[in-house]
Amino acid sequence: MNTFTCIPTRKKQPSFFFLRWLFFIVLFFFLLSFRVFAAPSETDLTTIMIGDDLHYPPYSYLDENGEATGFNVELARAIGNAMNLEVEIRLDEWTTIRQALEDGEIHAISGMFRSPEREALYLFSSPHSVTAGDLFGPSGTRLNHLQEIEGATVAVQEADIVAEYLEAQDLEITFMEVYNVKDALQLVEEGHADYAGVLKMPGMYIIDAYEMDLIPQNLSLNTNQYAMAVMPDNRDVLLMLNGGMEILKATGEYQELYDQWLGIYEDPDPRELFYQYRWILIAVLTLIAGLAILVILMRYLIRRKTEELLSVNTEMEAAMEELIAMEQELRDQLDQLRKSQEELHASEEKNRAILAALPDIMFLFDDAGYFLDCHASNEDNLLHSPEMFLGKHIKDFFPGTLSEKTLRSIRLAIQKKQLQQFDYELIIDDETFIYEMRLTPLNKKEVVGLARDITSGRRHQAQVEYLSYHDQLTGLYNRRFIEEALHRLDSPQNLPLCIIMADVNGLKLINDSFGHSVGDDMLKTAADILKDSCQENEIVARVGGDEFVILAPGLTNATAEKLVKTMQNRCLNTEIETIQLSISFGWDAKVTEEADIHEIFKNAENYMHKKKLFERPSLRSKTIHAIMKTLHEKNPREEKHSQRVSDLCVRTATIMNFSDHRLNEIRTVGLLHDIGKISIDEAILNKPGKLTDEEYLEIKRHPEIGFNILSTVSDMKEMADYVLSHHERWDGTGYPRGLKGEDIPLQARIIAIADAYDAMIGERSYRQSLSPDEAAMELLAHAGTQFDPELTELFIQKVLKIEL
């Protein structure tokens, strides 16, 4: 459906007022008698369900309170009141509402455009408006003819009559189907489509409501009647709808509804404007006529007086005028000669400037194909000096087929007096160059030729075309290509057609831990495995961040399973930064022509997600271990430090009577508390001297990085929070969240004390290590500011067993 201009129903002449009322009274009693005396049946209705499009203002939509409203909705309700019917309104997506009508879930649709195809499917009421579609484009665009959009991208509403009309025009339009008019207009405003082909009135309504910078092109596409629709077996419903409509027109209520909802969008009638301001126009025209008469009269009087004055000295002035005329003629001729010389000089200068500015090579040919002249602003673009061309034939410089083509085009240009244009290739120093030749007739014997190097433009065009259908990272096809290929391959000769979905597991974890460059390497490796494992006729594409699709004509579910096992075996032997590559697969095959390819696609995707649920937990656990292994290889000191912190945390938790589960938890957190350092530059981690302010800020990121890594594992979410908080301070000046006091998790407070103590007694190249007693005094000095005071005292006395 699309936006249209509505034309109100013309009012009846007053002379037919009585007859019309009499007709509607008879019709009303006929309908009433039909309902009273007809035998009870399934079609004897007191309540009817009427549906319409959910996103179609001002015809049908939901208001700010979520209530159905609009011209179609209010008209349906008014018809129900007129016919003493209970009307229920149902609004939904347009395709859903049409299906509901065909399935018998609703009795009628309150607004549908008539067409020969639809009249074969539905029965229509008398029209309640006449509408037309239009194209909407960005501000500043202006179309004069529909043919100007040939090859453009047009957003349309799915199953809409304007979309049907545009598809029938055979203009090679690329259609982008959406569910409603707003989405179609949004695609144009965001630059994803050139135009939106929708009904004009809903389009204007939505542009005003959402302040979109779009304008209609006023092409009036496919003017059509807008009416209510029912299924062929619901003729009694159609009779009641038509009867109610006529009653509303007779009472004037239809016109009130029309003026309220649609009249504000119509252009004013010029005849009504003329009638409204007729006296002003008459007065203005009368004044203009009077002024014109006055001017004519004054001119006449002035001419009479002038003739009288001139007649006195006619003979004396005749000779003088003759002399003056001769002198003026000589002066004019002299001025014209000077002007012609100046114009000729300026023209020559202009032509020289144009030739110097042109990037083209200019040739002048005669009708036999001989070079008469040659010019190039940069003579390096010529293979020979300009003088070498003069008097030579085309065949002396151009290859055989090219010279024949050029000579033929020269003769056509002279014969038809029209520009001739063609492209040709030349191989220069083993490199192919593409040129464009334009030949324009100069006279009956000569032709001007302009040769331009268009190699870079063609290469850029080829690159753009390549990127429009390929993924830039992996070189595989992209989602746009796979959607077109899916539509192209969905034919009986390609059955069975198998769709295999693949998802790289743990990509976010890899990106958070090792950086996006490693994640990109994992994606490119996965792409290579998928592509190398497939046959030439099988299409492999990357359709999302970590998702791939394989379209395999001729593959059944059984053969697809074998292909998947081959790819999984290759993954088992592939590692990126010590992380084993893992891909989850799902597949399904279309084996019958009746099967819906989109359902097959969805089945493959659902199967893949189910497999991913089982494979992901073990992969993430392996990845965590691989991350820690890599961290310890980068900084061997971290492994010993993490082990000591873990032991101190367990001893502290044991004294505090932690349960076995919580003891294991804090043991693990102690080992993993610095896992976020995997993303910190190795040079900073192993720096022998004191860190700079910038380096310290980089180090301070490791709690958040560790939280991001661990929070991806379902059974480590609480531990991730402890890692995030282990550098918070008791006084609230810590990082990253500035938590204070007991808002800091207990486990994080324990880790903070154990971490600080081990750092103080450990070896550092930039300072001397402290003894256990000295470290204990440092802890005590910062109790109540940096550390939990009670935990600090317990740690010193019970864990370190140092008397205070």
UniProtKB/TrEMBL annotation:
The keyword Transmembrane applies. The chain crosses the membrane at residues 279-302. It comes from the Bacteria. InterPro entries: GGDEF_dom (IPR000160), HD/PDEase_dom (IPR003607), HD_GYP_dom (IPR037522), Nucleotide_cyclase (IPR029787), PAS (IPR000014), PAS-like_dom_sf (IPR035965), PAS_4 (IPR013656), Rev_trsase/Diguanyl_cyclase (IPR043128). Keywords: Coiled coil, Membrane, Transmembrane, Transmembrane helix. Residues 616-804 form the HD-GYP domain. Residues 495-624 form the GGDEF domain. The keyword Protein biosynthesis does not apply. This is PAS domain S-box-containing protein/diguanylate cyclase (GGDEF) domain-containing protein. Residues 302-350 form a coiled coil. It comes from Tindallia californiensis.
